[in-house]
Request: fold
Amino acid sequence: MKRRIAEETVLFISILKWFILATLIGVIVGFATMVFLKLLAWSLAFSDKFPYSFLLLPLAFFLSALIIKYLAPDAKGHGTEKVIEAVHRSSGKIKAAVVPVKLVATIITIALGGSAGKEGPCAQIGAGLSSLFADLFKFDDHDRKKLVICGISAGFASVFGTPIAGALFGVEVLFVGSVLYDVLLPSFIAGVTSYHVSNALGISYFYHPLHFVPQFSEFFFVQICVAGVFFGICALILIETLRLGEYLSKKLNLWTPLNGIVGGAALVALTFLISKQYLGLGLNTIENCLQGQIVPWYSSFAKMIFTSITLGFGGSGGIVTPIFFIGATAGSLYATWAGLDHATLSAIGFVAVLAGAANTPIAASVMAIEVFGPQIAPYAAVACVISFLMTGHRSVYPSQVLLVKKSQSLDVNVGQEMQDVRAVLNLRKKSWSQSFKNAYVFVKRRFSGPEK
Reply:
């Protein structure tokens, strides 16, 4: 009896401890997110007054690469990746300089037209502040990691206004095939708190409840499954396009800020060649897709190229907002092919490409409910899981650790980071040949009739 009371007392104290700590992290990150989003909005409003501000992209990438290289190298890229790397390799230890450098570099990049998102900086700023908080109060490595994960969840929740999906994203994105249940409660508390703090301080969020979802039928369900395959292929192409951008940047073998000038010049040339539509956050295009408007068929692929150049050649920012753009436009393209409602498929693509590219099918499925309403939930969830499987053992976050094989017919080294995983086909010849033989015998008996 005494042991049972002692156990429950310890658990109660643990809950109370993490309720207080997660609430504090939520308040800190919610306020920091508000500051970042307001500065970004002001910068975008200012640059919009100058239609040809994108001509300054070479300068923007040069400055972004310069300050990151010499002030905080860990602020490079799209933010969340570096946080995942810090959790796995250094118990969540993040240098304080990352916070202001990431904020400034991202604002410079996006305001002048770089194709990047706003969630990566918020996740990295949130994680950086959480790490600083842990160091300030002398927490051990285990508690620091939990606080940093809370910071990721709080940043994601407050930047998109999705507290539940944000909390799940923080505990799902670190490992492929596993959810960190021991951090689930503080992540939820931090995410909800951060969202409400930012909202109370004047940040408004994008919600788009769907007013049309087709009535269920077997044929429509099959079409959604095929869409999941298509969105998984889009996620795969995005991952490989990002790798290509990094490869080309390294191949130039230039001083990093000079790489920024080259990348910025390439984006300026592509803008004149294609359209300004693929610069910046691309929120107008996403909203148009979700309202059922048709966009050029190549929109998702153009956004991949613009984003790859931005993040590979010195620009700073997140990757999730471009993923939303790619998913929504890919959904519109699929709807045109299949003769389905454009708004519905754009909404499903919005979350399904995220599920495949980031290996977060649970968070993406919940996000569909929070952003688009419960009617779309079963279709979005199926598409998210199929997209997650179709992407294979790849990720836009190479530092994710693989904990489950996506197919028993593939041999992979579980426990490694995704960037080190190599999948090898395992046909298991005996079982496969036996399966084909059994199928042949069944078909022969079915259609040939009994032997005479």
Notes: Residues 218-393 form a domain with the Clc chloride channel fold (CATH 1.10.3080.10). The chain has a mean pLDDT of 87. The first strand starts at residue 175 and ends at 176.
